[in-house]
Fold this protein.
Amino acid sequence: MIKHFITLLLLIFSLSSNAQAWKTVRHEAYFGLGASNFLGDLGGAKGIGTHGIKDLKIRMTRPTVMVGYKYMLNQYLSVKGSLIWGLLNGDDAVTKNEIRNNRNLSFRSNIGEAAAYIEYFPYGDKVYPRYKLKGVRGNKAFSLSPYLFTGIGVTLFNPKANYNGDWVALQPLATEGQGLAGRPEKYKRVTMSFPIGAGVKYRISKQLALSFELSLRYTLTDYIDDVSTSYYLPDEIEANTGAIAAELSDRSINPAINGVIEYGDGRNNYLQRGDPRWNDAYMFGIFSIHYRFVKGQTFIPKF
């Protein structure tokens, strides 16, 4: 009886100490490795492309690395910043949608992202791992902290296509006739991005933790894959930015389905190349290790 009473007192003292312990570990650095996937015009599922999660293709998964820094506002809210480098790929060869498959376009792009977030831990961001106390029911060794986050970022990208074994940057080629009559100017290779995601953190010790998170990034551009609107006259593209640009603007397997229909009276029908109704998006799945910087000392009983 006395043994159980002492154990209960120690537990209460431990919980009281934990309530303020977060103030000693407000600063945290983290490093992560994971995977990225593109959601846009190229590739995707069999139906109409929506740039949503249903268009995810596992074959297009590529590596990602992340570093970041976090500051705890309290046990439930934190702010953090991260730098992410990754690869994105899209390829019409992997889709079962007949129109997109016949379009036969593909790309890859390095991306660099700098973002700021706010994190919410509904059950608190644990400072110490839970210990299993002998004789105390319901106190299993459970050190997981789920969390949600959202934020804002800036993403750099540079879509390229494989042309006879060489990776050619597409934005300078104006493959949709950018800069020509009736067309917008060339797109910028930088965009705002808006992360939203969820994760779970496993507390190893006061200073170390592991986490895994899944997130989706919406952007303000439809040109991460260099595809958005309609085809343009290849002769005019060639005259403007060269023969390679004209060839990369339309790589259709069956040219009769895609391209530009030219009528005898001088009118042109510019067939659809992409879908400008949906901006591009991309996803991350990242495993991270976290290190907290301890300020002062916090005394708690050790069991």
